[in-house]
Amino acid sequence: MKITQHVLLASLLGVSLVAGAAVLKTDPAKTSVSAVFKQMNVPIESKFKKHNIVIDYNAATPDASKASVEVETASLDLGEAEMNKEVAKKEWFNSAQFPKATFVSSAIKSAGAGKLNVSGKLSIKGKTADVTFPIVVKTEGGKQVFEGALPIKRLAFNIGEGEWKDTGMVADEVTIKFHVVAQ
């Protein structure tokens, strides 16, 4: 009888741990990651077509949450095939050597109702930086929606080398925007 109780207790504990796990499944069709920058002072927004986002989130305990993002750098779509090839080259993302840009959270803190502050490490083109940015969290149609924007300086990550270091043509300021839908 005692063995049965231990087995039952272990089974219930295992079920509660699985039930408490909050790794959300993202909806790729409704999720987007984009880069917004100015070229010749004209704002351009381009989407990364390939990304993998993992969010472990529970609204009741946001401080225990985690997130990781991988973006395929060669998947940036500028709307023109030649420009897409250009940004994959060594001077820009160097996608052959650095095929992915990544973000891994180190802390997610509640910042009030429907708001989080996220900190972590952003790695692009072999350079890593500590970043912190706000996120808005809401529920739409039974799904969690995470939206935010992370401003960066492209030159800090060596994006735009050689003649492209001149910020007269392409501004140094880039905003990484994301809209993640998950359940």
Task: Explain what this protein looks like in three dimensions.
InterPro entries: Lipid/polyisoprenoid-bd_YceI, TTHA0802/YceI-like_sf. Residues 1-21 form the signal peptide. The protein has 183 residues and is mostly beta strands. It has one domain (22-182): Lipocalin, CATH 2.40.128.110. The chain has 2 helices and 11 strands; from the N terminus they run αββββββαβββββ. Strands 1-4-5-7-8-9-10-11-2-3-6 form an 11-stranded antiparallel β-sheet, with helices on one face. It starts with a helix and ends with a strand.
Neighbour order of strands in the largest sheet: 1-4-5-7-8-9-10-11-2-3-6
Gyration radius, to the nearest Å? 20 Å
CATH architecture: Beta Barrel
Mean pLDDT: 89
Query: What overall form do the CA principal axes indicate?
Result: elongated
What would you give as the CATH superfamily?
Answer: Lipid/polyisoprenoid-binding, YceI-like
Question: Helical residue percent?
Answer: 10-25%
CATH topology: Lipocalin
Characterize the largest beta sheet: strand count, sense, and whether it forms a barrel. Answer: 11 strands, antiparallel
Given helix and strand content, the structural type is mainly beta
Total beta strands: 11
Number of alpha- plus pi-helical segments: 2
Q: Write the H/E string, N to C.
A: HEEEEEEHEEEEE
Query: How much strand?
Result: over 45%
User: Span between N and C termini?
Assistant: 40 Å
Q: Which consecutive residue ranges, at least 5 long each, have pLDDT under 50? A: 1-21
What is the total domain count?
A: 1
Keywords: Signal
InterPro entries: Lipid/polyisoprenoid-bd_YceI, TTHA0802/YceI-like_sf
Pfam families: YceI (PF04264)
Protein name: Polyisoprenoid-binding protein YceI
